Amino acid sequence: MKLFIQTLGCAMNERDSAHMIAELQEKKQYTLTDNAKDADLILINTCSVREKPEKKLFSEIGQFAKEKKPGAKIGICGCTASHLGEEIIKKAPSVDFVLGARNVSKITEVLERPKAVEVDIDYDDSTYVFASSQDMGIKAHLNISIGCDKKCSYCIVPFTRGKEISIPTDLLVNEAKKLVANGVKELLLLGQNVNHYGVRFSTPHKKTNFTELLATLSEIDGLYRIRFTSPHPLHMDDGFLEEFARNPKIAKGIHIPLQSGSSQILKMMKRGYDKQWYLDRIAKLKSLLPNVGIGTDIIVGFPTESEQDFEDTMEVLSIVEFDTLYSFVYSPRPHTSAYNYDKSMLVPQEMAKERLSRLQNLHKQILQKKAQKEIGSIYEVLIENHRDDEGQTWSEGRSSQNKLIKILGRKCSIGSIIQVKVTHNDGGGLYGEFVRELSLEQALQANVYIKCINGSD
Ligand code: 5AD
Ligand code: SF4
C-alpha cells in the first residue's frame, strides 16, 4: 500500500504529517510515494491561516480525484479540515474522510470508516505516544503542546486547534532520548506558543514552565542543539532570556513574532504587548547575546492600519534588524474577532500590497548591510547535506543562529560539527572555509569561546 501526502503551512503541520506517516507505516504497512497516481491513499494536510490555500483546496481535490488509481482513498486533514468539517465531503464527494488538526492520532482509525469526519477540537491527544518515524535524520521536530489559548484577533488557529494543553515533561524527555539514540543532534520544539508551556496538563503534573523544560532537555547526552518555535513576546521574561543566553545547547537563533510595530494595532490584534515592550525584550536579549539571530512574522494592512502605524512597524524593523522576515498581507478569517469589523475599517488591498513591498525592501537593505559584517566571522555548522560528484564538492548546514552556510570544496559527514570562517556572501547565503572539526564536547565549549572572541561575553 502506498501513501502520498501533501503538506501545506507551518512546522506544526509538518510534524502532524510526520506523525501520520509514522502511524501508517507502522500500523498499516504503508510506504511513501511522491507520485499521487501510484498511491492507495492520498492525504492533503491543509492550512487555513490565510484564505488563499483554503480556496485552492477544492480544485486540488478535483485534480487528485481525476488522477488517482481506482479505489484509492482521499483524506483531508489539518486546519481546513477542522474548520470546514463535513462541508468538505458535501462539496467534494470524492473525499473519503476528514481529519482535524487536533485529531491526527486517529488516522489509522478513520481510514477504515467510510466518510468519517473527526474534527473534535476538544479531543485531547497530549499523552498519545505516536509511532516512531522510520526515516530520522539529524534534525527532528518535537511537539511540546497542542492548541493555543490566545485570542489574537486575526488568527483562526485557536478555532482549528482548540485550547492549549502541554505534553507531559517525562513523555517529552523519553521521546527526545529515543530520537537522540537514533542519531538526532538537533531538536526543534514546536508549539503555537512554546513559552506558555506548563500552563495546563491533562494529567496530574508538577508545576513547571518552558525555561525548566529547556534546562531538562538540554541535559540529554548526545544532543547538540535545541531550537523552538514560536515563543510569544509577552511571556519572554528575564529568567527565560537568561537561560536562553546561558545554556550552550540552546541555539542562538530565535523567532519572535512581532505582527505589528504599532502599539495601537497591537492592541486591536489583542497581542498583549506594545511596541516598547517588544523593543525592551529585544534590547535585553541583545545585551546578553549581541550575535543572536532574530526572525519575525509581520502582518501588514490590518484593519485601520494608518501610514503612521505602518511607519512604526518600519521603525521596529530598522531598530531590530531581523535576520529573517515572514511577512503577510492581512487576510480576514472566519471565527476570528477581526472578521466582524466594519468593512470601512479594512485597508485597501493595493495599499496593503504596496506596504508589504516597502517592508520587504527595507528588510533586504538591512540584510545587505549586515551581510558585509559577516566576512571573517567564525560559526559552528551542523552539517545537514553534502555532495561530491560531477566535479562538485561541498557541504552545508546551519549555524547556531540558523544561518545557512556552505563550505565549498570539502565533503564533511552529515551530523558532524564544523567550525567555519565566512569568506563571502552572495545575498542568498553565506560561504565559508573549513577551520576544524569539533567533537560534541568541544563544540559545546567552543560555543562559549566563539561568543568571547566575538566580544559578547
Ligand atoms: N492574515 C495574515 N497573516 C496571518 N497570520 C496569522 N493569521 C493571519 C491572517 N489572518 C500570520 C501571523 C502568524 C503567521 C503564522 O501567520 O503572522 O504569526
Ligand atoms: Fe494565532 Fe496568536 Fe495563537 Fe499564534 S498566539 S496561534 S497568532 S492566536
TrEMBL record:
It catalyses: N(6)-dimethylallyladenosine(37) in tRNA + (sulfur carrier)-SH + AH2 + 2 S-adenosyl-L-methionine = 2-methylsulfanyl-N(6)-dimethylallyladenosine(37) in tRNA + (sulfur carrier)-H + 5'-deoxyadenosine + L-methionine + A + S-adenosyl-L-homocysteine + 2 H(+). Binds 2 [4Fe-4S] clusters. One cluster is coordinated with 3 cysteines and an exchangeable S-adenosyl-L-methionine. GO terms for cellular component: cytosol. GO terms for molecular function: 4 iron, 4 sulfur cluster binding; metal ion binding; tRNA-2-methylthio-N(6)-dimethylallyladenosine(37) synthase activity. Its EC number is 2.8.4.3. Residues 1-116 form the MTTase N-terminal domain. It is an enzyme of class 2 (transferase). Residues 372-436 form the TRAM domain. Its main location: cytoplasm. Residues 134-370 form the Radical SAM core domain. The keyword Glycoprotein does not apply. Transmembrane segments: none annotated. It is found in: Cytoplasm. Keywords: 4Fe-4S, Cytoplasm, Iron, Iron-sulfur, Metal-binding, S-adenosyl-L-methionine, Transferase, tRNA processing. Pfam families: Radical_SAM, UPF0004. It comes from the Bacteria. [4Fe-4S] cluster 2 binds at residues 148, 152, 155. [4Fe-4S] cluster 1 binds at residues 10, 47, 79. Its cofactor is [4Fe-4S] cluster. Belongs to the methylthiotransferase family. MiaB subfamily. Catalyzes the methylthiolation of N6-(dimethylallyl)adenosine (i(6)A), leading to the formation of 2-methylthio-N6-(dimethylallyl)adenosine (ms(2)i(6)A) at position 37 in tRNAs that read codons beginning with uridine. NCBIfam families: miaB-methiolase, MiaB/RimO family radical SAM methylthiotransferase. Monomer. This is tRNA-2-methylthio-N(6)-dimethylallyladenosine synthase.
